[in-house]
Design brief:
Helix content is 48%, strand content 4%. The protein is mainly α and 142 residues long. Helix 1 runs antiparallel to helix 4.
Length: 142
């Protein structure tokens, strides 16, 4: 019987999220001079399924993501529906918008890229430590 631990599943999901986020940031940087291009961001992963698998939803607080429905009034003011399924959303944390409508700032994107790198290093270390524990448990060294 093989079963992936919740920690390893969470690490896997987070690493996939970080890889997708790195691609989106690279796309933002590549389009930093494209008129009317709007910066994008990747929606944070939802770990509530992992909590549910561990029985955390039995009478305890639940982690969930709010969902927004675009109304007619919101659409009239210029709101656009979020693309579902892709996890890529408009970046609301932009520092400026250029006169041509582009809101990508290289400095902001590089800061985000640095955060992705730090988060990826943390996930890699967690993975390495978990594998070391498993090896020690089966007697194959530390």
């Amino acid at each position: 019987m093989t079963s992936t631990s919740p920690l390893m599943t969470g690490i896997h999901q987070q690493m996939k999220h970080l890889a997708q986020r790195q691609r989106v940031i690279a796309e933002n940087i590549a389009n930093s001079e494209t008129p009317k291009f709007k910066a994008k961001e990747v929606e944070a992963p939802d770990f509530s399924a992992l909590l549910a698998a561990q029985g955390a939803l039995n009478g305890k607080p639940r982690v969930g993501r709010p969902r927004i429905q675009i109304t007619g009034g919101m659409a009239a003011l210029g709101a656009t529906p979020i693309q579902t399924g892709t996890g890529i959303i408009s970046d609301t944390d932009t520092s400026e918008t250029k006169p041509d409508g582009n809101n990508v700032t290289i400095e902001d994107q590089l800061l985000k890229m640095g955060q992705v790198q730090a988060d990826f290093a943390a996930m890699t270390n967690l993975y390495r430590k978990q594998m070391g524990l498993l090896k020690a448990a089966i007697g194959r060294g530390v």
